[in-house]
Design brief:
Elements: H1 21-37, E1 42-46, E2 53-54, H2 56-69, H3 74-82, H4 93-99, H5 105-118, E3 128-129, H6 133-142, E4 146-154, H7 155-168, E5 178-183, H8 190-202, E6 206-212, H9 215-224, E7 229-233, E8 248-251, H10 255-259
Parallel strand pairs: 1-4, 1-6, 4-5, 6-7, 7-8
Antiparallel strand pairs: 2-3
């Protein structure tokens, strides 16, 4: 695990959080029971990047490849090879400046190389699951809720790698009770793509829990499904603002939640 709570998603830690870890399972089970009472399938909506997976090793390997692909000074090549993967930010440009890059065409080309490879299938297998995430999804399925994975990743460039990663880490496996929704229109934002996907998810059942690491995207989905409980993963994010729902639990991983189940 690379990050800690203080390095996470630029949140105001002083805001009022009305849902505690100890209350979490009581609230979720209550929502599940309410969905069943009206003959609907309870659904849990879970984002992927920064919510069940971490990107550090993906970025690290892309820059190692860049060091071999570009004519860079030896010092910078060595700095790239020795740089701690855990130090890479959501946008790694400032990390490259710390390593020794100057604002230049070369920096722009290296960042373009990162962008083309980061948002592709090629390196997705290097992502690491967030601690306890897989076990958490197993608990959710055991409670009778289905899971909809909802990501701003695009189907065209990241669909194959995303499915392979989810399967290899047993987030999907052979479960027919999981679904994956990815962006199909490259011209829209992640927020808008999730708003569009919400209409499809609604046809599958009753959302009882929404989990994301982007406050704005969590807010967008909650406004579509205000009956759902909400959890925000405090991991590195885009920094785009959002107003958290009034009963949002903020966590850095799933270990404490899992330990209090049952």
């Amino acid at each position: 695990m690379c990050y800690d709570l203080q390095k996470g998603g630029n949140l105001d830690k002083n805001q009022l959080i009305r849902l505690t870890v100890r209350e979490f399972w009581r609230v979720v089970m209550n929502r599940i029971e309410k969905a069943r009472a009206v003959k609907k399938t309870p659904l849990v909506i879970i984002d992927i990047d920064g919510t069940i997976s971490l990107h550090y090793q993906r970025t690290y390997e892309i820059f190692r490849q860049a060091a071999r692909s570009f004519d860079l000074p030896e010092e910078i090549k060595n700095n790239l090879a020795d740089y701690d993967p855990c130090r890479y930010d959501y946008d790694p440009r400032k990390n490259l400046l710390q390593i020794g890059f100057q604002e230049s065409n070369t920096l722009g080309e290296v960042m373009k190389f990162w962008d083309n490879n980061f948002f592709s299938n090629r390196f997705l297998h290097l992502d690491e699951p967030i601690a306890g995430a897989r076990e958490f999804t197993r608990i959710i399925l055991s409670l009778g809720a289905n899971i909809s994975y909802l990501s701003g990743r695009d189907e065209q460039n990241m669909g194959e790698g995303t499915r392979a990663w989810l399967k290899s880490h047993d987030f999907i496996g052979n479960h027919s009770r999981t679904a994956l929704f990815l962006k199909t229109d490259l011209s829209i934002t992640s927020v808008e793509s999730k708003r569009v996907a919400a209409a499809k998810i609604k046809q599958l059942g009753e959302p009882v829990l929404i989990i994301d690491n982007e406050p704005g995207e969590l807010e967008t989905l909650w406004r579509q499904f205000p009956q759902a409980a909400t959890v925000l993963l405090d991991t590195p994010n885009s920094g785009r603002p959002g107003t958290l729902p009034p009963q949002t639990l903020i966590i850095k991983d799933y270990l404490e939640i899992n330990s209090l189940y049952g």
